[in-house]
């Protein structure tokens, strides 16, 4: 734990307050943080701040006779915020009756008489006892980011997903279910309808933040350190990360720009079982974390979250424009953009996406689905992995598959695992034709693709794992693509044996090079690529060899 538990002492007499605080610090300062307040009202304000920072309070040592708010009155309110904290009153002789009454009514643990000299005899033994008792029950609180929101809010989901995918530990507090969440929203003085509220361990908070604002707050790098790099890589999936490791390890000044979270699609996988060297598999998060560490060790700058939105050529420079309007110039550029989930275009989707209907997102939402019925759309490996992952949390998982079986779209090892998992049902010849609900998903309409019959089933959670499309519109007019948006490279560029239009060099495009010399594409975004982690890693790695060859003629 990083912060020490607090001892809070309250007294309206400044000299007494100073003396108590001094004695407390002398005896307990190495293990506890001693705070003081000159009135009950000031102390309550301080407690609200401590609550927002999730700092534990071990002991209240409070004067009974204070103007405006007596010690007992203060403790009654303080107890609502910190019910486990030990409570001791400091009283003058004349107040002892009130103190004794308070022991019964307010569950005060002890009352001590003023003056308390010598503290070794008249203060510390009692407090030692109370603090030992408190410590024996104490469980350190969560010491990280807390997100307070509504389970069905798309904005709350966006923030949770951003934190989870960037492997930033956080605690989720549902405003509908958690009293603590309701109290914190009150202490932070914010509107319950205006969530999510993100609380940081330094006591600061952000209301309805964007992922970029959260990133800035926690110190993720979103701006380039230099205006020019030898190599810029757009996309931090397996392909981009592999290229970054090889590029930087071979001496190229390298920057990698990632829109969401390093790891790409692979980072959302709960278990990758076919990647070489990991006989029992590894989670996509684990793979991403290792790759990022490796890339950083070689000096790669990773900007995240940051999106590349434009590109232009000023030979010999390739210049990309980021979402914040800034530009990065480089000699060689790798497009490792991967693919995004294909949208399910049925009535209700726009309204309910993020409010019970999700694309991928298994790891972010699985806990919230504890004991519930979960529906999954899709029949490929990603859907199979999602189903296996949810089966550990949900009461039951139904996979809705359009085809007649999983065999044509899923690896056999996953088909076997699903068959052996009793709480997964595979419903073939089934497609979702509508999602229904007022503020969140309440039901889905499923059509039998053979009979046309439609069945409406109650549902709170629908996870979509279908197909994938490249998002490459921003390359329009510069980088050639096929009619589905995948980037053309190498021999795929040749038109009836001719070099691509506008190509002026006295050589053919390299294997992974696009129609623009010095701009390369690797991984899932490339036309004709094999959609696998290993293939993207392989392409990212070998691409760097072509870049060396390209640079040797440019510089
Ligand atoms: C759930 C799931 C499970 C899978 N399981 C396996 C498995 O077990 N084994 C296997 O071999 N394969 C698996 N795959 C497939 C594998 O993950 C992909 O083939 C692989 O991730 C492709 O890597 P990539 O680097 O080409 O692209 P991606 O992983 O898609 O990464 C591309 C990255 O580029 C970023 N990006 C895109 N455009 C921009 C932009 N304009 N600016 C900045 N950043 C941008 C994206 O945010 C993304 O992070 C799985 C896929 C999914 C979704």
TrEMBL record:
This is Fused response regulator/thioredoxin-disulfide reductase. Residues 6-129 form the Response regulatory domain. It comes from the Bacteria. InterPro entries: CheY-like_superfamily (IPR011006), FAD/NAD-bd_sf (IPR036188), FAD/NAD-binding_dom (IPR023753), Ferredoxin-NADP_redctase_2 (IPR050097), Sig_transdc_resp-reg_receiver (IPR001789). One of its GO terms (molecular function) is oxidoreductase activity. Keywords: Flavoprotein, Oxidoreductase, Phosphoprotein. The modification 4-aspartylphosphate is found at residue 63. Pfam families: Pyr_redox_2, Response_reg. The keyword Phosphoprotein applies. One of its GO terms (biological process) is phosphorelay signal transduction system.
